[in-house]
UniProtKB/TrEMBL annotation:
Name the record gives this protein: LRC43 protein
Highest taxon above the source species: Eukaryota
Alphabetized UniProt keyword annotations: Leucine-rich repeat, Repeat
PANTHER family named among the record's database cross-references: LEUCINE-RICH REPEAT-CONTAINING PROTEIN 51, NISCHARIN RELATED
Range of residues in the leader sequence: none
PROSITE patterns for this protein: LRR
Any GO CC annotation of this UniProt entry: cytoplasm
The keyword Glycoprotein is annotated on this UniProt entry: no
Keyword Flavoprotein found: no
Amino acid sequence: SLSAAFREYLRHLGLHDFPCGLGSWNKSCLSGHRRPRGVRPGQDEEPVLDEESPEVLLELLRDQHSPWALPPDCSPQDQLLREVAVLAPELIHGSKICQVLKSLRMVDKGVEEIDEGVLQFQQLEELVLSANQISRITSANLPRTLKVLELCCNTVGDLQDLCAQPPPELQHLGLGHNRLRGPSRDKFLTEDFWPNLISLDLSFNNLSDLLGLVSQLSSLQKLRILVLQGNPLALIPTYRGFLVDSLPRLSILDDIHIGHDERQQFHGLARQPELSRSEARVVVSVGETKGVPDTSTLQQLEVGSKAPVITYSYFVSYEF
């Protein structure tokens, strides 16, 4: 589950170990205040060496030469949590840490399920779960504050569970490199489910019905960015022009800005759906081949020869 993966992730960060968390290095935090470093209670000058200031502890995390520094390729999320564990160590206990994060990235962590524990992230606005093993999204377990949901490179096959109680403020939905087919008869890609959606990534799925998909997307009043490349429907000759004319509010299609000239070029194409048939023609040219005997070099058999005849046949298959 996502909650279990997050707990394991925190364990590897070592938030309870020096220089993070609570210990002899900052034990004055236990009393709710901090005395000057190196001064015992009731004394002015006698130094003690068992406690450090927050500034020194942060320096141990940030200095690249420090043995406690995170690797250079660590994420901003890693750095934030480590620094929170220094400045407010009381927040790393129990579920309090969940209330600190507005963005959570759990990439390639083997997550299969978005469980109910995710609701503890009461301020979460961005959830990135790319490259996991998620096939089903229980929308009731998603925080209602969510604005970005990225699920690229999972195994999502349909949107029924996600659309049961979708986050109402969601602005970006990333479903690239999944197993979506469609469009679904239940029409889950409409404004009824995503009234605030600005950006939608459906690239590299199994979408083939361009007309059916456009009929749904046209209801998304705020949609400005759309990615559909890698789907079979992108092979249709009039694919881009039909989308540009059918969705006049779009600003970017397949990572390419839609300019005024392009809109003028394809003006009126949306009124000719017969040009956007769900079929495509693919021309394949076979170049050099290796390992195939050249029959022109074989000796011709004499007329009337009773020698056995050897024939060769080859085939090439294409899967779409």
